[in-house]
């Protein structure tokens, strides 16, 4: 600051020719500017000190300052856990109530320090992990600070590890929580349950009806559909960065890295090593390490020293053997290393087993069969092993790698039970991102040929070509399976003709007026559509014969999940321009059909209107073009299947029309269509269209057979 | 220093200091918008000393978390690992032996026995078996009847009862009973069965009632299962008279056996309502279970969240709102899943029993058992054998879910009854296809195979057959591709035809793609199935003497069909086509695909010829086949199609130069 003052003094010297009168002025100005600069600089350092020194209050304080609560020796103790508890008996759903977002509200009790009558603390206040866990919940969408609106309560009493707890006093501390009410809707997190000598597999603290997210459940203690089985968090997850290793064979086939293993089991493992030599590695703790080396991070085999957990990446399968407790933190390390865990812990409930499919990422071997382990594992084909390695790593990334991941997965599981209709699916829980990207789940997956009697609804999009429209209506009404005709009147400036003027046809005819002249009105899911099959048809398509249309409907029945149309089109990769190109030449392949006349399932109308990705719908309406290409993209993307082109027809030819064909010849039209394909492909992020070399014809098409005996004789013009 | 200078200096300095103090007091509030203070609105404080908190987990401090041996299974709390000895299952194959109680067999027992006989699980002696089936008698409730020999404390026993069992927990035996109470059900050990009606068909069974994927607009939203059986539907979708404020509207009651016709079926949680569950499933009515107190059937493997909604009975209005607002996409998939599950696992007693056994077989296989996808997507686990492969990409039906596509090469499998000129020509034709990976000759002739074979660009191998018709569909190890082109020595094809048919197969890898086809029909007059061989407008079967199909169907043919059916084929080789078509149609529920056959003339008869040896009357025999096989299957799986797949420019009046498959059109 002195320096700046000096600089300030020197100021006038820098402007020697200035008039004295102005000098004062300039000096002041200069100093103010300088001040601003300094003040800004000060901001950079001050906020922190301000925050820490000012009233911080709730936000920042020391753990030593938390309120102390004295627990009288005679204060009530909750009953032991009720093993018959289920969500519909012990959980109070009324607290969760109706919720438009289908998210439960979680309240966290403020942190207290509990002491007994003598003033001796009940336990250490909170562990690092439990603090992180509560922080993760508080930062999530589940959190509420309003205790009266909460559906789930999380005590801040840390029971992650049962070891340092004073069981009775901890239970008393739980019982005095303001909304305890026999533990209803309370969630406790525990990773290391039980204690010597018998090591119960669930937390020993009496907790009445409280839900337990426990890290070592066995089938005897786990209340299916009520408790949540969670992993034992491994601190190494955050300390060590293990880069993902590509799946494939590794140096050791089987590796055991645990230190505290029962001698009998160790004998079994060493027998395996003796038998299979190089491919099995059994590690133990190091006895000859020099001072200062973390023994947690080292493992030894005879005199060889290995880095832990890095050594796990050298093995295909890694043993996860029960200790006194069923849940082992090593499971997390093993998954992190992309090593396939071989879980040997009878009756152990694997973490998140309610939703995770452990079969895809692990091998469970009964303790009795430990000696056969090697041959069991060898029977697993290499491709499956690689899948498992990938899956193991993905489980770690999604559900094991941090306390936050564990906490949120637990809450999601409970949330899914309370709002089952909004629950996350098996695929969302279990499929790694790479599978989620490439896999297709066809919305019409059930193989089903709808009955012919249902018929189809024809939807004619029209603007003002009434004469042509009436001809289309008359032609289409000759098709036997037509069950309804819907005219979408897209002209807002003109009323549709009077009712008496419309052609008289044998099926109901409805006219829908639209609010705006948009191409996407053709694909709107009108309530009037009662059949599953929809025939989209332009108001100038009069050349299709009744046989052609009826046959098109028959083909759609056999392929109800596809777009079934007449003239086919193709997309091609233009190597010179490095982009997609639209092709209407008569080629040997098709990848799209024109929707000037096409059959499809009405569900695709819903998808087109409400689920079209990106801005495609607006783009189509703005350009007044390519709605058919957009539909082709949509259907191919969602079903993963190709279109079906029926009959040899190559174009929609009509005497006076200037629509598709007239335009198709136009060069600019072609350019525009190509642009659409490129635009859509970039929005979809991929090219969903599938190219095929076949079209659908009637069975006896052009066969040497009397025409009058054929079902669809009137087919064949181009 | 002049006065003005000093003055201005001090002035500037004091202004400077003043400003500094001023800004120092309110800097944040003036200049920077207040930062959102983490923790304030979010409740959980950021502790100053958080960095000094100790971890809950001190590996050093856990010396006692070490050795302990396994505990012996406690009483009836059995688990799979503790109470089932898999080492008794040789080759990990489940073989069962049925102990039926002495005296007259009850009807329910007889049906179970019938469904097992001849299946691949059936063991003839108790020594071969690794699972003993105990069927408790239904006569006197409470008592279980005498325990079978080899009881051994119930170890490796399954107590199977299609109805809620009279006696359940028996030593270490697994229990498979209808709708067990979830309080006593042991997950991963017991098996929950569906509650079957008395007259449930033994085999085949009625397919699901659903005729269309999406619900009819204006269809009834909700049907409620009645206490006494049957269903009640409401016009206003307000099933609770007490809870709804609006008028419940006219309601209709439907008697016991009728299936509900609504989008959702509300089923109360008590165990007696479990019988409604299957009705809803069959009707394609999405079951909404209100806090069920019973275990859902086959819950170990079936992901019921994909087909049903399990909601809390205490929140009826919330459930109702959720149902009304459910997205069409969700309704669509739930509806379809109900139908798939019904047809795959529940429509007959045989399917229920086999599903139970497959669940146990999967447990024995452990890691090489079926992945969840196989159980929960068509065609279902009974038709997807994991012995074929553990990789889903190898099966014909999971390409979409796996994001994979079928391979681009095929193996030609030529069945040779009589050697001769046509064979050599056929080899040349097939080897001419650039997609052909190998040619396998299945030699079934009396004469020995020739020593020399024509030079071909692709590997050629000879397999010695046993001169049995079922040989043709044996899963030979030599077959290296997933696509098989099955040929008869008399097949006359062109390379162009082979290429095109293969291109079509790649679009339909789960179906059979054939050149020559037949149609089946129901002969009202005689009350039998018949079929047409002449040219027709429809077809439902493809001749396997010239057809593409997936290698998996060989495995299925050999390992899933009952012995009786395979013997039938060996005795009457003409039936082999029918049987294969039945099998594939059972899996796909769709017709085969027909592709054009260039030399389709009336003298195409040689291609029709199947099997070795003389057959005086193929037609009546074949007629017989279809009826025989249909009886064995218990239903008619064949589906007719009116479509043939032709090349895009097939027989179009355009230049031949444009056409890729031009030789298809030669007369």
Essential attributes:
heterodimer; A: 718 residues; alpha/beta; 7-stranded mixed beta sheet; B: 7-stranded mixed beta sheet; 6-stranded mixed beta sheet; 17 helices; globular
Please explain how this structure is put together.
- The complex is a heterodimer of chains A (718) and B (667).
- Chain A is α/β, with parallel strands linked by helices and 718 residues long.
- Chain A has 20 helices and 26 strands.
- The model of chain A is unreliable at 1-16, 44-58 and 654-664 (pLDDT under 50).
- In chain A, 31% of the residues lie in helices and 15% in strands.
- By secondary structure, chain B is of the alpha/beta class.
- In chain B, helix 11 links the parallel strand 13 (410-416) and strand 14 (436-443).
- The longest helix of chain B is centred in the first third of the chain and has 23 residues, at 3-25.
- Chain B starts with a helix and ends in a 20-residue tail after the last strand.
- Chains A and B meet through helix 1, helix 2, strand 1, helix 4 and strand 15 of A and helix 1, strand 1, helix 3, strand 12 and helix 6 of B.
- Chain A: Residues 456-701 form the Glycosyl transferase domain.
- Chain A: The chain crosses the membrane at residues 24-46.
- Chain A: Pfam families: Exostosin_GT47 (PF03016), Glyco_transf_64 (PF09258).
- Chain A: It comes from Microtus ochrogaster (Prairie vole).
